[in-house]
């Protein structure tokens, strides 16, 4: 399928995509804060620069966009039909880089947790995900 908008317009749309304070990340922060959890943002001293860090639980949380990090089985993770020579390697590099983060964090005695963009739309479900993934193995 050919792109429905011009290359210049597509470039402008893609340039507006943020790396910090994205909608899914803000939703995770609001739910975690409402649960009484305290965290730090974007710790650059930890591998992968986690979006949220919960020092009490030694958890580094990443809020991954389904497209950018190719969420397996998610409809949002489809490969673009145009410029595949660009998108294929770019998205593969993201996935390969992600695979290196959890082991690097484990070496530092941290646990990596991923919340996918598609999991952030339901606040109650998101709270349960945070409870299970962030607070696991803790008497909370």
From TrEMBL:
Q: Under which EC number(s) is this enzyme classified?
A: 3.1.-.-
Give GO terms: molecular function aspect only: endonuclease activity
Output the Pfam families linked to this UniProt entry.
Vsr
Q: Which domain of life is it from?
A: Bacteria
| Gene3D superfamilies for the chain | VSR Endonuclease
Question: Which controlled-vocabulary keywords does the entry list?
Answer: DNA damage, DNA repair, Endonuclease, Hydrolase, Nuclease
Q: What CDD domains is this protein classified in?
A: Vsr
Family the UniProt entry places it in: Belongs to the vsr family.
What does the protein in this record do?
A: May nick specific sequences that contain T:G mispairs resulting from m5C-deamination.
Name it: Very short patch repair endonuclease
């Amino acid at each position: 399928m050919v792109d429905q908008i011009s290359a210049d317009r597509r470039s402008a749309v893609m340039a507006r995509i943020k790396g910090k304070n994205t909608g899914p990340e803000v939703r995770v922060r609001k739910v975690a804060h409402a649960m009484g959890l305290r965290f730090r943002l974007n710790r650059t001293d930890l591998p992968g620069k986690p979006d949220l860090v919960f020092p009490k639980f030694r958890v580094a949380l990443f809020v991954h966009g389904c497209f950018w990090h190719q969420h397996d089985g998610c409809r949002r993770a489809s490969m673009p039909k145009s410029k595949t020579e660009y998108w294929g390697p770019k998205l593969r590099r993201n996935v390969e880089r992600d695979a290196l983060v959890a082991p690097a964090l484990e070496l530092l005695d941290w646990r990596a947790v991923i919340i996918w963009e598609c999991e952030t739309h339901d606040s109650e479900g998101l709270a349960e995900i945070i409870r299970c993934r962030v607070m696991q193995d803790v008497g909370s």
